[in-house]
Fold:
Amino acid sequence: MQGLLLVDKPTDWTSFDVVNYVRRIVATTEGKKPKNCKVGHTGTLDPFATGLLVLLVGKEYTRRASELSKLDKTYEVTLELGKTSSTGDPEGEISVVSDTIPTREALEQALEPFRGPIMQTPPAYSAIKIDGQRAYKLAREGKEVKIEPRPVTINRLELIEYTYPTVKLVADVSSGTYIRTLVEDIGTLLQTGAYTIELRRTSVGDYQINNATKVQELGDNLPLIEMS
Structure:
């Protein structure tokens, strides 16, 4: 069993949960133990996020993960102004920052500096390794996490809807871009604070969420496709 599998990840599932779920299906179909079945993903999604997860099934495909991990991605983003989160998302400790209500014009102006090539500092609560350990693990232990800024590209950042305190955006970004950080940086520029309350990935390169299968609908006959 070889190929790509496009999955619509539900909220509260980790990317690893989805990989394990699919691995068990492959193992049952092929009559093997799960540990002997090769299944991987090409870019993780936070547990609170939903949307497109591109899985690789089979040894021939998992060894090509790097070809897909660098693809641009598109996200639908919902953020809340006036507050911040210790993790940048609903799972963290929420703090009230400001009751200032920015105008739509001010919000549009705040988005402009983040379009195109920018330098971004990934969040402490991320999977980036620091001295061999995941940053989020160090952060949870209360240890200082220092991550250097890195170049990313925001190809499109469009304001879709604004009803204070909620803002909806669509972002086309390069690989390695952290939406939680982008949202926090927008909130900092507005001097109101902001954090991501909903996040949905709708594309990875040419692969679209419309062609993905919900986890609950996956059966023995996986809808595998070839790498384009």
Residues 11 and 48 are 5 Å apart (CA to CA). The chain is about 20% helix and 35% strand.
